[in-house]
Each structure stands twice: as structure tokens, then as C-alpha cells.
Amino acid sequence: MPMTAKFSPELQVYLDACLTCLAACERCAACRMEDNVKMTARCVQLDRDCADACAFTARLLMRGSNLHAEACRICAEQCRKMAA
């Protein structure tokens, strides 16, 4: 079922960023292959945490929830950590 909801341009930018980061973190978690098993496990956990934060935030944005501002802040913070 296609989504037909209209978002403000600002919210659409946030939603697109969440979905882009979600996809990147899921791909990264699936591709982690390092010699250090403990480091690999921790990286995958962080990737999945970031992906979950992005997915949660995207759902709030799509619903027009009043909680979206705080979720966007948390999501952006986590995405910045993962990009570093």
C-alpha cells in the first residue's frame, strides 16, 4: 500500500535522512568482517542500534507524532557517531 501522506519539506528531509541512515547501518551491520571478534560484535551492535533509532524516528515522522522532535535529535546524534 503506497503512502500518500504529505509532509512539510523540512519533515521530508528528516524522513529521507532517517531512511538513508537506516539502510546504511543495516548494510554495514551485515557486512562487518574483522579479525577482532569482540570489536566486530560491538560494531554490529552499534550499527543495529542506529538502524533501530532511525526506523523508530521514521515511524514517528510518518505518523505525525508530537514525539518526532526528540526522536530526531536522538537519531541525528546516533547517526553522527556512526559516521565518525
UniProtKB/TrEMBL annotation:
Source taxon at top rank: Bacteria
A UniProt-annotated Pfam family: Csp
InterPro entries: Csp_YhjQ (IPR005560)
PANTHER family to which the protein is assigned, alphabetical: CYTOPLASMIC PROTEIN, CYTOPLASMIC PROTEIN-RELATED
Protein name, UniProt field: Four-helix bundle copper-binding protein
Natural source organism: Deinococcus oregonensis
Taxonomic lineage: Bacteria, Thermotogati, Deinococcota, Deinococci, Deinococcales
